[in-house]
UniProtKB/TrEMBL annotation:
Cross-referenced SMART domains: HTH_XRE (SM00530)
Record key words, sorted: DNA-binding
Domain of life: Bacteria
Pfam families per UniProt: Cupin_2, HTH_3
Gene3D superfamilies attached to this UniProt entry: Jelly Rolls, lambda repressor-like DNA-binding domains
Biological source species: Virgibacillus xinjiangensis
The HTH cro/C1-type domain, residue ranges: 5-59
Lineage: Bacteria, Bacillati, Bacillota, Bacilli, Bacillales
Record's protein name: Helix-turn-helix domain-containing protein
Amino acid sequence: MGTKIKEMRLRRKQTQQQIADACGISKSLLSKIENGQTASAIATLSKISDVLEVPLSWVLDDKYEQDLVLLPKARRESKIGDENMGYSYELLANRSQFSGLEPTIVHVTPKRMNLRQDSYTHSQDEFIYILEGSIYLSYDGDKHFMEKGDSAYFQGSKPHLFIPVNDEGAQVLTLFIDNPV
């Protein structure tokens, strides 16, 4: 974990002092974390991940960067999330945030089970491709019908929601793309 933090800090061309100051911790503590000499509280790691602009999950993940990431379906967590809130998802590749891309399959809950009405926002741009079924993409106040084979690209910072069309549900290939701005 410390090695990953150090590598990201160096990629960003920042000193230990700069990161420590931004996190409100001592340079000595950051050095010990980077060198694996101390375990750190999640709150501290969360501050570091925020300053480095990477998810906390990336910091905590014990996997190292690879040129090729194979994730057979049998080893992939099948579904994460709460279907009653409108969706669950499968993370397709546990790539690092260096790539700026997070491929996911969103399973849109069938209409009869879906309780979600509030839109989402997030900092990443989003590309979607309808794999199965159909949805209404509610985006920034407008509603767009989408079916198998349709795609869209949009800013995640604007309110959006996948709304089920019927009781079949849908599967949506979603790529979350870090926005450099």
